[in-house]
Hints:
Layout: H1 19-24, H2 42-76, H3 80-100, H4 105-108, H5 110-129, H6 134-160, H7 165-176, H8 178-196, H9 202-208, H10 211-221, H11 228-233, H12 237-247, H13 277-280, H14 282-317, H15 327-362, H16 364-385, H17 393-410, H18 412-420, H19 426-458, H20 460-480
Helix pairs in contact: 2-3, 2-6, 2-7, 2-8, 2-9, 2-10, 2-15, 3-6, 3-19, 5-6, 5-9, 5-10, 6-19, 7-15, 7-18, 8-9, 8-15, 14-15, 14-17, 14-18, 14-19, 14-20, 15-16, 15-17, 16-17, 16-18, 16-20, 17-18, 19-20
Amino acid sequence: MSDVRQTFSTASVASLDSPQAYIEETPIWRDGTDVDSSILTGMQWRIWWLACAGKFFEGMVVFMTGIALPLIGREFKLTAVEHGLVSSAILFGILIGATALGGLADRFGRRAMFIVEMALFIAFLLVLSIAPNLAITLIALFGVGLALGCDYPTAHMVISENIPARARGRMVLGAFSFQAVGALSGTGLAFLTLTWFPDPEAWRWMYLTAVPPALLILAGRFFVPESSNWLIVRGRVAEAETALLRLLNRRPRYPSEISLKAETAASPHAHKVKWSRFLTDRKLRKATIFASVPWFLQDLGTYGIGIFTPVILASSIGNKREHAQSLSDLVYNDLLAAKGAALIDVLLIVGIVFAVMFTDRIGRVRLQVIGFIGCAVGLAIAASGNHAGSGWDVPLIFAGFMLFNFMTNMGPNAQTYLIAGEVFPVAYRGTGAGLAASFAKIGAVLTAFLFPILLKDLGTDVLLAGLVVTSLLGAVVTWVYRIETRGAGLG
């Protein structure tokens, strides 16, 4: 950083009177050469890493629950309906938390909810680890989901409102990729826990492993500044200037001082969001449909296939012990499921890497459309496996599901999250992004409950055909209501 001049180019900035204008400034070298990509400050990197942690914990806990479920079922002697409640409790919590808590970021600030969500996450994990019965277990899982739901809009906003637009896409998706890293880590930790402690209560230790790192992340979140974009909308100009100085603290020092212009519409009561505007305001309505409907359709397929794929993978890895009676049989089957889930997670990581690489080059809309179409192709290949000759059935099903997992994480699974945090104005961003996430999780909850039942009653072919249709519909809705946010400022 010592090679960077203390004067910075402002060719792309009309006037330095808004937080986003300062954030967008590009350093230049001593010979006057522009830097191709933004040089992020230490505080910007700190915010990014702390936001990554939220997505990491989501992937870790949600995927860990799938492995913990057989052990929870054995301890509490769960019925089929109770199994469904446990498997969907976190998803239902995310559904509620994304809007109920995520929307509070528009009222109390991004930093405040960034802290609160992690405190809630830790508290409910601790309750979960000592839950004496099913009722407390469900409450704790729902509470964990509430905290993770709040993170959907909040983590996105603390990154996107503090990062230059030209780097925003890859930085937000880079953080989102930690969901897949967390999933892989969660399955790995669950596998090790079961190996070291082959006990019916091993599931409690699985959840406790997330508490120590979460405490460190909670401590770190107390030391980040509030979003200057949010402060300026609230009319708190002096606080916005102070926050921006902390965010852009560089060596050599630049800027040495910041002078912001209050927005004309700024108000300390800007948190009073009128929900009716999401329907009556044409731009907000279009943004809501664009952010919500494709995400809902994506979750139908992603969670549906997520439930079905481990069965195929488990059968290809080894022989499952049917009608497990002993604890050793139960642990063996759970370890087998953990291996299968780990294979899936590798494809999720590969897909998100491609999303990070191309979202700022190709654009959000095109990647989402390409991803949806790729998902449909993958599902069609998987469906064809049921009608292929002997020796081709498992490879086709395997290949189709792997293509689906790659395309969904490169396209709609990543892009819907990114888009939801970009298409709404600052004053409505937390509520709008939370609303989109909640609507999407309706699809996830419905799938968690209904997919196994429909799989039994309708069969694989009908279900896969239905998901092919929903994937293609996602591509159509994305294109019809498209709002490309690549490179656009969020101030």
